[in-house]
Write a structure and sequence with these properties.
There is one protein chain. The protein is α/β, with parallel strands linked by helices. The chain has 2 domains: 48-161 and 281-310, Rossmann fold (3-Layer(aba) Sandwich), CATH 3.40.50.2300; 165-279 and 315-336, 3-Layer(aba) Sandwich (Rossmann fold). 49% of the residues lie in helices and 18% in strands. The protein has 14 helices and 13 strands. It has helices at 2-31, 34-45, 60-77, 93-105, 116-125, 139-142, 165-175, 191-206, 222-230, 242-245, 248-257, 267-273, 282-297, 320-325; strands spanning 49-55, 82-88, 110-114, 131-136, 156-160, 181-187, 210-216, 235-238, 262-264, 276-279, 309-310, 315-318, 335-336. The chain has a 7-stranded mixed β-sheet, with helices on both faces. A 6-stranded parallel β-sheet has the order 2-1-3-4-5-11, sandwiched between helices. Helix 5 links the parallel strand 3 (110-114) and strand 4. The longest helix is centred in the N-terminal third of the chain and has 30 residues, at 2-31. The radius of gyration is 30 Å and the shape is elongated.
Length: 341
């Protein structure tokens, strides 16, 4: 009996030791975390970035800036390293807010805002996610920053589509020197349009012109407002204005029938209703913005320290068909714009 008891105790002791050994082996296996760390490091190195794009309205200039941005960012990060969620607000500022909210909820890595209302929505929607704007005329005006020095200083930066406004005003003397009364036409709900209009008005009045300002609140007012304006003026200036850009089909026949020449803030509007513009390349502007985004996403730059960048080489362009129809002699330093087929 004693022998049996001793054998049982010995067996239990061995079993206990085996169990302890098994427990230590399992713990050692669980603590071996190096493969997990390596996998995490590889995942970080191969990160796929999610970028939300909110665009106010579909328009050739804004579309070109979006394409340039995407092309530049894919080139910098790799085709398979960035996902774009490209949303168009169809001209509705409230929809910009909704789109931005979805980007914030999804915790996108960066937001691109195309046109001023989109930028305002993004700036109001997050103070954490980096926001870049493009096709924005003047950031101080857009974001209500007094004495703007060129750097926003928050999570917002970007590129400006502002061409020299004094040079745009001077185009009236170059192309229609007999025009004494100039109409300025823009959407009253676009802060950057108002900014351009005020600068150009001052330049025109300094050159001895009489200026008549006519605004419209939305697309429903465009036709009646332009019809009223052309009855009072010899020529019209339309700044870079998103609502006007979307309604050149209404503006053009009224001005053409009245034989009123229109000088525009950008080439997309000119192609729809104008005789000339001091043009920037919106695709290249978008590429510049994409290069800024790449630096932010790669940790090479802090968005709060990035100054606004500008297009450096605007070009004088004219619409040959409209100039010929109006009998306008175009100076040699203007380039004929290509017309879409």
């Amino acid at each position: 009996m004693k022998k049996v008891t001793k054998m049982l105790l010995s067996a239990l002791l061995c079993s206990s030791l085996i169990a302890c050994g098994s427990s230590n082996a399992d713990s050692g296996s669980t603590a071996t975390a190096e493969p997990t760390k390596t996998a995490t490091a590889e995942a970080a190195d191969g990160k796929v970035y999610n970028v939300g794009i909110v665009q106010l309205v579909q328009h050739v200039a804004l579309d070109a800036s979006a394409q340039g941005f995407q092309d530049a960012l894919k080139e910098a990060l790799g085709e398979d390293k960035v996902n774009f969620n490209y949303q168009n607000a169809a001209g509705d500022s409230a929809t910009c807010n909704t789109i931005v909210s979805s980007f914030v909820t999804e915790q996108d890595d960066l937001i691109l805002a195309i046109a001023t209302p989109a930028l305002q929505a993004a700036a109001n929607g997050t103070d954490v996610i980096p926001v870049l704007g493009t096709a924005i005329t003047e950031y101080g005006t857009a974001l209500s920053i007094d004495n703007f020095n060129g750097t926003v200083g928050t999570n917002v930066s970007g590129t400006s589509d502002l061409a020299p406004l004094d040079q745009q005003a001077a185009m009236f003397d170059e192309l229609v020197p007999d025009a004494k009364t100039i109409g300025i036409f823009y959407c009253s709900n676009e802060a950057n349009s108002k900014y351009q209009a005020e600068v150009v008005q001052e330049a025109l009045e300094k050159s001895g012109k009489t200026v008549v300002v006519k605004t419209f609140s939305d697309s429903n007012d465009v036709q009646s407002a332009i019809t009223s304006l052309v009855a009072e003026v010899d020529a019209v200036y339309i700044p870079t204005d998103n609502t006007a850009a979307s309604n050149t089909g209404l503006i053009d026949p009224v001005c053409s029938d009245a034989k009123i020449p229109v000088i525009c803030g950008e080439e997309g509007i000119m192609s729809g209703c104008g005789i000339a513009t001091l043009s920037i390349d919106y695709y290249e502007l978008g590429k510049t913005t994409g290069a800024m985004a790449a630096k932010i996403l790669k940790g090479e730059s802090n968005v709060s320290e990035m100054p606004i960048e500008y297009y450096q080489n605007p070009v004088k362009k004219y619409d040959a068909a409209r100039c010929e129809a109006l009998g306008i002699t175009v100076p040699s330093d203007y380039i004929a714009a290509e017309r879409a087929e």
